[in-house]
Amino acid sequence: MKGPGSQADNEMMLVKKRAKSAEGSVPRSPEPLGRTASPRIGGRPPQDEALLAISSHFEEIMQLIPDIIAEVDLNKIYVWMNQAGREFFGDDAIGKEAAFYFEGEQDVYNQVQPLFVGSPDIIYVESWQRRRDGEKRLLAWWCRALKDEAGNVTGAIATARDITASKRAEQTLRESEEKFRYVFDRSVIGKSITLPSGEINSNRALAEMLGYSSEELNRMKWQDITHPDDIDSSQKALDSILAGLKDSARFIKRYIRKDGAVVWGDVSTSLRRDADGRPLYFMTAVLDITERKEAEERLAANIDELRRWHEATLGRETRVLELKREVNQLLMEAGRPPRYASVASAGTPSTPAPIRPAASPAEKGARPEMRKGELE
User: Is residue 81 part of a domain?
Assistant: First the structure.
């Protein structure tokens, strides 16, 4: 198929076409009765001059628009393109089929086909296309059918915008979010994303720690799973972050499992804010330290028991020392040496008992016998 003429010829044809379509919108000045119509200026009616001015202004606007604007005929051949379009595709784009610039297999023609059979809709398509420097770029197109005065489809007009950078940014963001979600969901440490209002989005580890399913836990607030005695202290820690007094907080709190059991948690939390500093959500990690707390409680109980046993033993030893001193005192009053040389009697220095020869039978009879149970 033979392509259309030069770019300038096509633009002039487009101007005439749009000028003709705009003719009905230009108001005509009513002629006073008894007067003839105003003479033509330079052989052209004033209405035509106005139409040409409107068309010229319209063309200037079309050329200045930064988005691509292009017209194709029924064969999908470019017949007109604004300056942005020529800068993207090249000055030789007029006369080439739209598919000439496609990169890879595409279903664009099937998507826009309804326009060429009269559909009044605006159809949106995304298409990878080749720029004049050979680089592959993603264009977003908004396409609409063009019709003549009889309502017959003559082609389509479309605007396009290069969305390559934004799509790549979206892809990078999506990959980052997927990576975060993967780490979040599969972490062995309980984690949650908690709104300032209290709603939580938990990972599997936290749900299992508290005996809930993720669906159950994600319908609750953090206050619902916190021990009643720890709610106020937890809220104060969060309030200090919300107030900007600190960036993060770490504290110990008790959780209540679904079965009513107590779970001790070592909680670390920080606040994510938006670009304007408004709070978005808390990112929280919870380490189950229940076994450690129970071991600490058992150790504390054992230490307390040892202290009481020590105090009781020390008291008994003190009483034994007192009794030994009393025995020594009684023996000394009876004129006999102290029996317990290692213990000083009241007012008497502790001295070793003198070594005496073995006692005679008579002396043994004079010595009182120690009854069973008395101190040796």
Answer: yes
Can you tell me whether residue 2 is helix, strand or coil?
coil
Q: Residues 300, 332: one domain?
A: yes
Q: Do 129 and 213 belong to one domain? A: no
CATH number for position 248: 3.30.450.20
- The verdict on residue 128 lying in a domain is yes
Number of folded domains that form the chain? 3
What tokens were used for 188? Answer: 């062995």
- Model's pTM, two decimal places? 0.53
Q: What are phi and psi of 195, to 5 degrees?
A: -75, 155
In a shared domain, residues 227 and 310: no
Residue 50's domain comprises 7-23+45-167
Q: How far apart are CA 6 and CA 91, in angstroms?
A: 10
Task: Supply the mean pLDDT for the chain.
Answer: 81
In angstroms, the Cα distances linking 131 to 30, 79, 87, 141, 187 are 52, 18, 9, 15, 45
What's the rounded Cα separation, in Å, for the pair 141 and 159?
6
Amino acid making up residue 4:
P
Q: Do 74 and 112 belong to one domain?
A: yes
What number of helices (H) and strands (E) belong to the chain?
10, 10
Q: Classify 191 as helix, strand or coil.
A: strand
SS3 81: strand
Q: What's the pLDDT tens digit per position in 38-86?
A: 444 455 666 667 666 676 766 677 777 889 999 999 999 999 999 999 9
Amino acid identity of residue 263, one-letter, is V
Q: What is the length of the chain? A: 376
Instruction: Report the alpha-carbon distance of residue 262 to residue 211 in Å, rounded.
Output: 11
- Is the same domain home to 18 and 129? yes
CA distances 345 to 140, 143, 335, Å, are: 108, 116, 14
Could you report the per-residue pLDDT of 264-312, keeping only the tens digit for each? 999 999 999 999 999 999 999 999 999 998 888 888 888 888 887 777 7
Question: Residues 252, 304: one domain?
Answer: no
315-340 mean pLDDT: 81
**Could you give the count of Cα atoms lying within 13 Å of 210 in the half-sphere of its Cβ?**
29
